[in-house]
Amino acid sequence: MVCAAAPAGWASFASVHCVEGAPADDPPTRLERAKGSDTVRAAGVASAQLIANVLALVTTVILARALGTADYGELARMMSVLGILIVPASSLQVAAARDTTLGKLGVGGHAAASLNHWVFRVFVLTAFTLAICVVLREPIAHLLQVSQPWAAALVFPSGVFWLALALQRGVLLGVGGYRDVGVSLVAEQVFRLLFGLVAALLGADVGIIFFCSVPLATIPAIAVTWWLARRRLGPSDHGPARSRLRALAFRNPVPVAGLTLFAIVQNADVIAVGHFFGTTLSGAYAQAAVAAKGIIWVSIGLGLYLLPEAAREAAAGVNPRHLLGKTSGLLMLVGLPVLAVFTLVPGTVLQLVFGDMAQLASDALPWLTAAMCFLALTYLALQYLLALGRRAFLVVLATAAVLVPVVVALRDSTLVSVSVGLLILDLVLAAVMLAMSLLGRVDRDRAIGADDAEALAVAEASATAEAAIP
Question: The whole model's pTM is what?
């Protein structure tokens, strides 16, 4: 009997096919096994995400320079809300991948039928959300401190619309379409860059630029991903959906809540500052926040390693705390030199990257960067606690999310006071989260599966990275 085992990975549960009397082939080399493994293909998705992040950053810098500091503040506030909305949407990507992997959607045309049903529901939900936001456009514009109510009305529908893209990627991941997902990630940012750049070159205002670079650019991204899914799944058999969209929404409640709260902590300051400072100062603060949040990207990359490895060791009965210490140390190796540069020449950095009036936030940049270093440590602690199946940390993150706008409200007339307040808050938050990570008992029965951890790490990396770029 000769058995050929499929490679194990979160997106394809290994199945063993045995053929009686078949001649034994030469065993594959380690390199050949690695090239065909799901782990390597998943690493390709991570590489595509890195490219997409770079494109997103390029888009941000180009639009910031084209709009100027004052108008960029409005765009940053809209993008910050969008970043928060994208995080829970990505949880459905994980659930869709899981259901596809387990065969709950069927195969081929059956899976395509379920996906089409989900996407149609998302389109209906987007239209419903848009109708409500159009009616409430004035209050929403006041909440976001956006001068164009019609543009503010597009923010929440854009977040719902993006859910269609997440569901498509989830199904593709579930059938092993790692390369297709990588193409989708890069294509989305290419469309955002091109559409936003064209609008900026034509002298469009902030509302038109948001429309072109977000909802309009998402349409071709969905079309490209639909074509990739159809090529892999085949045409829909038009059968009934085997897994309802409502059921998907409740698959991963703890990671969804934790990551959404983290996104609020990460972005609420940019929104709140718009209520207490003028357009130019709030825009300069948003530009400084983009620079300071670079360290969050490093923590996202480390989290891709920490979450599945900690889950794997905890499930095996091994204490994984050394992994949290190792990743935290690596984070500081990057964060401390960045903090030193931003402390020594903050004005030069901001003027070089963003131009215009960005240097108005130069005094705040070192404090804000230090705050983001502690927030990055919080992210690693969050990954660790998710791996161990903990829940109590949600109370801590919810408290911090409420306190961010309070800290901004207690400021004086300077951006430095806001940044110092956030530094104190993020320092306390990181200390509490790390204490919960290191002092709690490791229970192997509560740890999430390594396969689920890998799926979660890939999806949340995409969402958290986008949330880090207002």
Answer: 0.81
Residue 243: how many other CB atoms lie within 10 Å: 22
For residue 133, pLDDT beyond 90: yes
pLDDT in tens, 324-357: 999 999 999 999 999 999 999 999 999 988 887 8
Q: Count other Cβ atoms within 10 Å, centred on residue 79.
A: 27
Distance between CA 371 and CA 223 in Å, rounded?
Answer: 39
Q: How many C-beta atoms surround the C-beta of residue 70 within 10 A?
A: 17
Query: For residue 300, which amino acid is it?
Result: I
Q: What DSSP letter does each residue of 55-99 carry, written as one string? A: HHHHHHHHHHHHH-HHHHHHHHHHHHHHHHHHHHHHHHHHHHHHH
Q: Which of 86-100, 263-277, 418-432 has the highest mean pLDDT?
A: 418-432
3-state secondary structure of 177: coil
Checking phi first, is residue 236 left (phi over 0); if not, alpha (psi -120 to 50) or beta?
Answer: beta
| H or E, element range at 264 | helix 253-276
Q: What is the pLDDT of residues 211-236, one digit of tens each?
A: 999 999 999 999 999 999 999 888 88
Longest dimension (CA), the chain: 81
Cα dihedral sign for 366, 271, 64, 193? positive
Separation of alpha carbons 116 and 236, rounded Å = 8
Confidence of residue 450 (pLDDT cuts 50, 70, 90): low
Question: How many CA atoms lie less than 13 Å away from 182 in the CB half-sphere?
Answer: 15
Determine the residue type at 212: C
Picking from 157, 53, 177, the residue whose alpha carbon sits closest to that of residue 115 is 177
Cα–Cα distance between 463 and 76 in angstroms, integer?
16
Q: What is the CA radius of gyration of the chain?
A: 23
Q: Work out the number of other CB atoms within 10 angstroms of the CB of residue 450.
A: 22
Residue for token pair 């997902």: 181
Q: What does the alpha-carbon distance between residue 165 and residue 219 come to, in Å, rounded to a whole number?
A: 9
pLDDT digits (tens, 9 = 90+) for 67-103: 888 888 899 999 989 888 888 877 778 778 877 877 7
Say if residues 358 and 288 touch (Cβ distance below 8 Å). Answer: yes
Residue 352: partners with Cβ closer than 8 Å, 6 or more residues away: none
Supply the angle between the helices 69-101 and 450-467 in degrees, to the nearest 10. Answer: 160
Q: Are 39 and 204 in contact (CB under 8 A)?
A: no
pLDDT digits (tens, 9 = 90+) for 138-182: 999 999 999 999 999 999 999 999 999 989 988 888 888 888 888
Task: Compare 35 and 394 and report the one with higher pLDDT.
Answer: 394
Cross-strand bridge partners of residue 9? 12
